[in-house]
Recover the amino acids of this structure.
């Protein structure tokens, strides 16, 4: 499989430049713009010793940047789009990174308890980055059934302490209803247009009620860094 790839280095990481679905993003990748803010936050904020869950892996680029900091054995990825999951696995293999990846959609425990269904309809977009749980706003999409996994169970299973989240609006229901015990840091892309301003703000309020704080130094352009009270900037200030 790897022999058919056209590998090109982006910030020292090999990606398949021959992948048709990646083609529209190649120039942005070369300029460091594609996933640029998330990559900068991962490089600047993650620390060795953290165990990181990434929700919405797509190409695997951000996961591999995280693996450079915490080690591939401490990164656990989730991707709902079967083609993206396959692409990320090819990239992990090409870079010699044994990063765990699950094909599925994460759901809050309260939803799993209320609904016996163990799969959910996911809408595949022709775009690399626009597939989502809802087809709203898509010009063309294809529905598929994807396994459901309990977020709280997966956090406990991996002993995760940090999360990277980019799930095209799905963060509102997921993080707005979940108990994130054990998680001390979240790097997340939010989606006002897809998920709604009020719903997104309600999700942030739910996280604040759980003890998270918004890091204003590193948040912007809808990408936010949240940290547990007493850690992150607060710990740095106390130590200084």
């Amino acid at each position: 499989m790897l022999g058919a790839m056209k590998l090109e280095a982006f910030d020292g990481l090999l990606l398949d430049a021959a992948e048709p679905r990646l083609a529209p993003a190649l120039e942005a990748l070369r300029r460091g713009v594609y996933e640029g803010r998330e990559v900068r936050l991962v490089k600047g904020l993650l620390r060795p010793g953290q165990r990181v869950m990434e929700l919405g892996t797509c190409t695997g680029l951000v996961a591999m940047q995280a693996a450079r900091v915490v080690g591939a054995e401490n990164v656990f990825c989730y991707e709902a789009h079967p083609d993206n999951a396959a692409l990320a696995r090819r990239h992990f293999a090409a870079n010699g990174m044994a990063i765990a990846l699950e094909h599925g959609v994460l759901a809050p425990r309260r939803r799993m308890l209320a609904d016996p269904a163990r799969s959910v309809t996911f809408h595949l977009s022709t775009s690399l980055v626009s597939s989502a749980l809802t087809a709203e706003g898509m010009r063309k999409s294809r529905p598929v059934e994807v396994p459901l996994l309990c977020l709280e169970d997966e956090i406990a299973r991996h002993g995760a302490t940090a999360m990277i989240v980019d799930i095209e609006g799905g963060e509102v229901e997921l993080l707005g209803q979940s108990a994130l015990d054990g998680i001390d840091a979240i790097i997340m892309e939010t989606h006002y247009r897809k998920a709604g301003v009020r719903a997104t703000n309600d999700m942030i309020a739910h996280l604040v009620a759980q003890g998270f704080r918004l890091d204003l130094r590193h948040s912007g352009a809808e990408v936010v860094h949240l940290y547990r009270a007493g850690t992150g900037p607060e710990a740095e200030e106390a130590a200084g």
